[in-house]
Design goal:
Layout lengths: L6 H15 L25 E8 L10 H9 L3 E8 L4 H11 L10 E6 L8 E3 L9 H7 L6 E6 L11 H12 E2 L7 E2 L3 H5 L2 H14 L10 H9 L15 H11 L4 H5 L2 H6 L11 H14 L2 H10 L5 H7 L1 H8 L9 H6 L1 E3 L7 H22 L10 H9 L8 H5 L3 E6 L2 H5 L8 E3 L4 E5 L6 H14 L7
Parallel strand pairs: 1-5, 8-9, 9-11
Antiparallel strand pairs: 1-2, 3-4, 3-5, 6-7, 10-11
């Protein structure tokens, strides 16, 4: 059995392997010499089930049990993968990248490890690759037919362990599965297809994960929806026209209200009857007709909300909502969650200034003044179009989240580290523009001093960086 190499030795081994032993081993999709072509076979190729476990960093020990949930939520941890029995290294790499998306930009290399026997936290030993990399045949043998776990260990990088895109997921859930104008609360969209596919249960599970991880709260539910999530019942007496969000029902209510003669009301007879109204359709009954439309539009959504409730059982969230509905109210119903503003961001910025009194320090403080002016200008903007930048967009571009932390401990320790780069021209050579770089994992932003001479320069460059800098891969 091979001795487990130390961290420094592994890094040197990765460099040596990538440069000499088998070039392209650490590059995804690299070519591996000539391929022979065989006649197509009608026989289905056999597959092998292997267990892989992606670790976030270079380590010589298996993860602690307490770390496993965090890794799973970050898209890592243990997963069972089916691979072609004759698969080579390039095929293995492709399957692993599809299974673990965070491996896609892993430029520092990786090696497979195997845990020693026993229970609890165990030592990892390297599984040495062959000259052309790993093969499915070799991995099947070393894993005892797929029974043992193969640990994927990054060599020179530390992977982000934050949950996968919780902010973006909550935003996507809001637009995909809910509807309603403005910011007064939304109802689930009526979709039997999503109900049959249990998509609303997944919605509830994602919400539970987001709240458990300090992610954004789903503060977009109508109050009647929240009450149903808490106790599983609907108080029909509290439902009103304001609780109707689907366009068809809203239009029908509007048409009934504007009807001034029996003929105009009778034109709507089919739509009214389809809402379950069974009394006489006449002008004197407009109020009861509208009431029927309201009840039809809302109560048909109960199966969707029941599925959301099922998903909220994850981590015991539903029990907490039932026991403490007042405390959880602001997390689900709009109007109570504090939005980030310029003061919030500036108050939590921790700038790493140069020595006091130096020219560098004066330039850095000028940049911070520009940053504050930039944020205040965004905050005072009256334009409400979605394309317009907001303070929330800036916060998200730096930290990966557009909301103020909701967990008290997280909010207390929240900070944005601000760094300054005075030497980008010396580092990169002559260039005309350089954008701020961010690390969402460490909540750090670095401003290029040599390109931000005026407030106009800062506003232009910062706006472009926030608007088009979709990735957080640079530190």
């Amino acid at each position: 059995m091979l001795a487990t190499p130390k961290r420094g030795e592994i890094c040197r081994l990765a460099t040596h392997l990538s440069n000499q032993s088998f070039p392209g081993f650490f590059k995804l999709g690299g070519k591996r010499g000539k391929k022979r072509f065989f006649a197509a076979s009608t026989q289905k190729s056999k597959t092998v089930a292997l267990n892989f476990y992606l670790l976030p960093k270079n380590t010589t020990l298996t993860p602690l049990p307490a770390e496993e949930l965090e890794l799973l939520q970050a898209g890592m941890g243990r997963k069972s993968v089916s691979m072609p029995e004759t698969g080579d290294h390039s095929e293995i790499t492709q399957v692993l990248t599809d299974t673990f998306p965070k491996m896609e930009n892993l430029a520092g290399g990786w090696l497979l490890h195997k845990a020693s026997g026993g229970s609890g936290r165990r030592k990892l030993t390297v599984i040495p690759p062959e000259a052309e990399g790993y093969s499915v045949k070799a991995l099947r043998a070393v894993s005892t037919g797929g029974k043992a776990i193969l640990f994927i260990v990054p060599l020179q990088e530390r992977l982000d362990t934050s949950p996968l895109f919780l902010t973006d997921m909550i935003v996507a859930i809001k637009s995909r599965f809910f509807e309603g104008p403005g910011s007064q609360g939304k109802n689930p969209k009526y979709s039997v297809t999503d109900l049959d596919n249990e998509n609303f249960r997944t919605v509830g599970e994602v919400i539970a994960v987001s709240l458990a991880q300090g992610g954004p709260p789903p503060a977009f539910f109508k109050e009647w929806c929240y009450n149903f999530l808490c106790n599983g019942e609907v108080d029909l007496r509290t439902l009103s026209q304001e609780d109707v969000t689907d366009l068809e029902s809203c239009q029908l209510i509007n048409n009934v209200e504007n009807s001034t003669d029996p003929e105009s009301l009778m034109v709507l007879i089919d739509d009214i009857v389809n809402c379950g109204y069974s009394s006489q359709i006449k002008l004197d009954n407009k109020k009861s007709i509208i009431r029927a439309v309201v009840l039809h539009s809302t109560t048909r959504l109960i199966p969707m909300l029941q599925q959301v409730r099922k998903g909220l059982e994850l981590y015991g969230l539903l029990d907490q909502m039932a026991a403490h509905p007042e405390a959880c109210y602001s997390l689900f119903v709009p109007g109570k969650i504090e939005k980030p503003d310029a003061d919030f961001i500036m108050m939590h910025c921790k700038a790493e200034y140069s020595e006091k009194g130096t020219a560098e320090e004066r330039a850095e403080r000028r940049i911070m003044a520009f940053f504050q002016d930039f944020l205040e200008e965004l905050e005072m903007s009256d334009v409400k179009e979605e394309e317009v930048l907001t303070v929330e967009h800036v916060l998200k571009s730096i930290t990966g989240q557009a909301h103020i932390p909701i967990l008290p401990d997280e909010k207390r320790h929240f900070k944005i580290t601000v760094k300054f780069n005075h030497e980008c021209i010396e580092q990169l050579g002559p260039h005309s523009v350089c954008y701020p770089t961010v690390s969402a994992c460490s909540q750090t932003v670095t401003f290029p001093i040599q390109h931000l001479d005026t407030l106009n320069d800062f506003t232009r460059i910062m706006s472009e960086a926030v608007r088009y800098g979709g990735g957080f891969h640079r530190v």
